[in-house]
Each structure stands twice: as C-alpha cells, then as structure tokens.
Design a protein that fits this description.
single chain; 2 domains; binds phosphoric acid mono(formamide)ester; alpha/beta; 5-stranded parallel beta sheet; 4-stranded parallel beta sheet; Rossmann fold; 38% helix
Length: 340
C-alpha cells in the first residue's frame, strides 16, 4: 500500500487517485473480513478516537464510533450540552484539551465551514500528534460521505471487481440544494476525480451558475489539483430532462430552514418541480441507482415509494458502506502517525 500522505483529512479536493485507491482497497478488505464473520480486528488497539460533534448527527457519528470500535480503538464521545463549552470554553481549547488527554484522532463536526483547518493549525502549532478528521463542516466538506457515496456507486456498477474506472463518463445527477450542501461539494470532488460527469439540477436560488467553476476553486492551502483530468459539471433546471440521461441519481435533503431566506416560494412547489417520484423516475429507461445521504424528508425531495419499494434505492447500502470507509480513514490516519 502507498504511504498515506495526510495527517488531517479536511476535504477530498486534495485527494489523489492513490489516496482514493488506498481507502477503497482497505474498505474492500474490511468488507471481506466482515463477510467472513470477522467484525472486529485489533488494528487500532491502544488508539484513542474522540468524536467532537457540535452539530446533530445520526449516521456519521455512530458510524465513526462503530468503525473505531471494529478496529478495537478506545472511543471517547464529547457531548456539547454537558461540556465546558457551556462555561465559555472555546472550540479550539476544547480540541486542545482532548488532544492533551491523548486523543490520536479527533473526528469533528461543526456548523462553521473550515473550522477543522483552524483546529488542526492550533494543534500543529503545539506539536500535537493528534489528527483531525472532518465529519462535516458547515457548507464546505463532508469527506467520508463523499467517499462512501463513491464506494456505493462503484459497488453498484462494478460489483465483482469494484473498479472505480467504471464511473468514467457516467452521468451522475445530483438534485437539490447544492449551494448549502457539504455533501454535494464532496461528491463533486470525488465523482470528477474518476471522470464522472455531474449534472446539478434545481432552481437557481439553490444552484447558482458559479457551480460551473466549482472544480477550479482549490481548498485553503492547496496549490495544485492532484487530479489531472476531472469529469465535467453542468447545470440543468429541468428534472425530467436530466432524469432521461442519468446513469445514477443522488437526491439531497431540502433544508427547510432555507425557506426563511426566501430561496423557495413553497415546499410544495419545490416538490412538484424537483421531488423525485417513481413517475418521474420512469422517464429513465434504465433501473438507475438512487442515493440520498440522509436524513431524508419523505414526500418532499423523495417519495415514500422510492425509499420503500424501489429496488435500486441504495440509501441503506450507503449507511452500511459508511462503516468500512470510515474504518479505512481511521486506519490510514493511524498509519500516518506510526510512519512518522
Ligand atoms: N449524512 C449525514 O451526514 O447524516 P448525519 O447528519 O445523520 O450524520
């Protein structure tokens, strides 16, 4: 396996093909072990994984904690409401405190974009060995979700070989509130790295034209793109026309809180125009896979019938695939530490 080059994981914008390959090779191995009946291995015995979630989460937090336990790591969970944050302690000081307790990996979710860079910068300045793993920061990035979505698509299109090249030139339709979605941003980096062409579909208030240039915006501290040839991004305002040509569909949660900012005239009109239903899906002649990162708003962006009855609805597969992907990320960060 290639050496793992990242002490911290903030974004997929700086992932090379070798980085993706390392993650998927490990995830495949963890999957195979589980299928053979070995759920737990001693790979991270003695490693302390601390989850610092300043924002609600069902899937990501539990999946990271389970992944850490499957690798035999010690797991520590921070609860913001009963912590010294309530007494005015800052997020940075909270992170430094957990690092001082011996956290090897801090898994961080926070509503502020780029906060994980700030935490990592402060820890590095103290010569801390603690790695920071972004579990969703504001609108910016959700790398483990981008990776598990990619892995889910690769498993669907290449079930035997799990060859990521299968995504080259595939048309992946992402529907919904791209502008406020860290998941969509991570999907764009991950899909384009393997030559998939993405169609973003939704109203201009949720998908401004600036997204056509998204792949030209490097992340902080990034000087060059490690991927030479990326797939394209196009924008469509017609869900019906987009569905006809899609090879796979990713539906995003309609963030109802956005209604307060007058970005939509009504939820009903959004659902009529951009909600995915079996009727609209039938415009596509293939049985395309449908993904959704969750949490879902049933009957708003996706119909009950798709969630409950459509055979290629992969929402539960995404949740399951999150565990080996997150095991791989924790394993690789631990490997980085042991190699320096
Ligand atoms: N997909 C996702 O991030 O879900 P949670 O908010 O439940 O972690």
């Amino acid at each position: 396996m290639q050496p793992w080059p990242h002490k911290h994981i903030h974004t997929l914008a700086n992932f090379s093909i070798e980085d993706y390959t390392s993650v998927f090779e490990l995830a495949k191995r963890f999957d195979a072990l589980k299928d053979a009946g070995t759920k737990k291995i001693p790979a991270l015995q003695g490693t302390l994984v601390t989850s610092l979630f300043f924002e609600a989460s069902t899937r990501t937090r539990n999946s990271f904690e389970l992944a850490a336990k499957r690798l035999s790591a010690d797991v520590q969970t921070f609860s913001p409401n009963s912590s010294s944050l309530a007494k005015g302690e800052t997020i940075i000081d909270t992170a430094i405190t957990y690092s001082a307790m011996g956290a090897d990996i801090l898994v961080v979710r926070h509503p502020s974009s780029y906060i994980t860079y700030e935490i990592a910068k402060n820890l590095d300045a103290l010569n801390s060995k603690t790695s920071v793993l972004n579990a969703g920061d504001g609108l910016h990035s959700h790398p483990s979700q981008g990776l598990l979505d990619l892995y889910t698509l690769i498993k669907f299109f290449s079930p035997k070989l799990l060859n990521p090249k299968v995504l080259n030139s595939k048309k992946i339709l992402i529907i919904g509130d791209i502008n406020h979605s860290r998941v969509a941003r991570s999907n764009l980096w991950a899909l384009s790295a393997f030559g998939a062409d993405t169609i973003l579909c939704g109203p201009p208030t949720l998908i401004p034209d600036k997204f056509l240039n998204f792949l030209k915006s490097p992340s902080p501290n990034q000087v060059e793109d490690p991927i030479k040839f990326r797939g394209s991004i196009t924008i469509s305002r017609s869900l019906e026309e987009s569905i006809k040509i899609a090879d796979a569909i990713i539906v995003l949660r309609l963030q109802k809180e956005r209604m307060m900012h007058n970005l939509l005239s009504s939820i009903d009109s959004y659902s009529d125009n951009y909600g995915l239903t079996t009727e609209k899906l039938s415009l596509n002649s293939k049985d395309v896979p449908v993904l959704h990162p969750g949490p879902i708003n049933r009957g708003v962006e996706i119909s009950n019938r798709i969630v409950d009855e459509y055979p290629n609805c992969l929402i539960n597969n995404q949740v399951s695939n999150g565990i080996p992907i997150r095991m791989a990320l924790l394993y690789l960060l631990n490997k980085f530490k042991s190699e320096i």
